[in-house]
């Protein structure tokens, strides 16, 4: 059994794939399997994967039709044989000792989840721009209060490893919805149900920020399904084994994240769809109040901009 199964959805990433794969095949923890789910790439991605497979038996390639990152990650988890499961986006990369440090931390503390608090944002050329807040403030998180920031600050799944038996016992998968919020669902449930989350900050995940039109375009009707993400999270909590007190606390935490996330979707949405989206919001969550852009800017966006500027200034020194 490999110590870690790393799952990578691959779709038309020929520009970045080699850097991603190099950071994985050169891990100091060699006992890993690297599962690449090719989502019908039409560029040279599959040829790149074929070359790496010839040279490294740990790489597994599964060719699927283009059904999105959530489907690819779920497919990867079906294939995975590792003790722990990790996710990497194909345009990102990691430190060479990334998985060794995470694995040792999880083993040392007997944690269901191990995470790095060091996530560095890069531009498309790979130059570091800023660090990303992850809500990880202590070396070991066990209580609702300690774990809550991991949900409020981010929906990221790729800065962590998860015990495979823990994911299966709690039936934690990515929802097959046509939205950008499937990570929020997986991350929230993993954080909520984890017995412990061990946190390290001595290895980094490098997250490449895309400036392509597809990622920066106004949100449209497919983003309505963010509402389904949060309805499913609420339902999962209500139907869980948690105590009534913990359920109430976690629902309050999810409400904070929900308020920020849905408000961002609403404010970034093409005006053509806003009225319909607002009606759907009220039907799903009658007491929901949209955060106005000024509130979002002051409480969420401005602190991130300041952090990015500070990092850029440090790089120039």
Word description of this protein:
- The chain has 317 residues and is α/β, with parallel strands linked by helices.
- It has 12 helices and 10 strands.
- Strands 1, 2, 3, 4, 5, 6, 7, 8, 9 and 10 form a 10-stranded mixed sheet that branches.
- Helix 5 packs antiparallel against helix 7, helix 7 runs parallel beside helix 9 and helix 9 runs antiparallel to helix 10.
- The longest helix is centred in the C-terminal third of the chain and has 24 residues, at 244-267.
- The chain is globular, with a radius of gyration of 19 Å.
- Mean pLDDT is 89; it is low at 212-216 and 312-317.
Secondary-structure-based class equals alpha/beta
Largest sheet data: 10 strands, mixed
Number of helices: 12
Rg value: 19 Å
Give the fraction of residues assigned to helices. Answer: 40-55%
Q: For the record, give the distance between the C-alpha atoms at the N and C termini, rounded to a whole number.
A: 46 Å
* Number of E-type strands: 10
Mean pLDDT across all amino acids? 89
Low-confidence stretches: 212-216, 312-317
Strand content: 15-25%
